[in-house]
């Protein structure tokens, strides 16, 4: 099989082989620009695999396989894998850590803590699992009933808000919804505005079910927030922390502040 190539520099027209990699650390930041001072737009969790689009000094621009999200990571924070291994992982079932925090051990008995939602599928591939990681914790895989979404969401309750975060130690609104759905076997895109393009729109809150998504916009009409609808007109969402508030036809009502904090735009049924 011949390797895949891509043009990285149109001016020099140098053909560079496509490269692929996997996150072999607990969590690494995904940045908007190739700089340690750049905004963290998301995180890459242990076991997530991705394509390397280009390199610049110590930085690599990557595209995550799960949601096609792009950003920059430090080139010292991943392990390269073959295209064959990348395709095998992409076609394999997704297996995730289902505990808030667990750990993997290597052949030297060194512990590596990994957060909820870390990917474990690669552990079965000797050509990828070169550090001989072993995992003895709780795993989850496959599509779960829609009713399980709320119980999974409660695992993140009180997690602090963190722009770009995807773990119980810090998470943003769309990272929260994406991870809750991922742990139950469903695929959401990364940002709230992207997630709002998925699923079927509902006309009224009364038509919604627990697990449906509510989206909220700003004065310019841009989708800026998302949460998961619960029973009896409640919503669980990440705002300051993962919290539960009232939801009505105007939006999210924060009883502590005695005001609406987010303006409802649309409700979507994903499942």
Explain this structure to me?
With 271 residues, the chain is mainly beta. It has 2 domains: 5-141, Roll (SH3 type barrels), CATH 2.30.30; 148-269, Alpha-Beta Complex (endopeptidase fold (from Nostoc punctiforme)). The chain has 4 helices and 23 strands. The chain has helices at residues 83-91, 148-153, 173-183, 192-195; strands at 5-9, 14-17, 19-22, 27-31, 40-45, 49-56, 59-64, 70-74, 79-81, 95-97, 101-105, 111-115, 134-135, 139-141, 166-167, 170-171, 200-202, 213-217, 223-229, 234-239, 241-247, 251-254, 259-269. The strands form 7 sheets. A 6-stranded antiparallel beta barrel has the order 18-19-20-21-22-23. A hairpin with a 5-residue loop joins strand 7 and strand 8. The relative contact order is 0.11. Mean pLDDT is 94; it is low at 10-15.
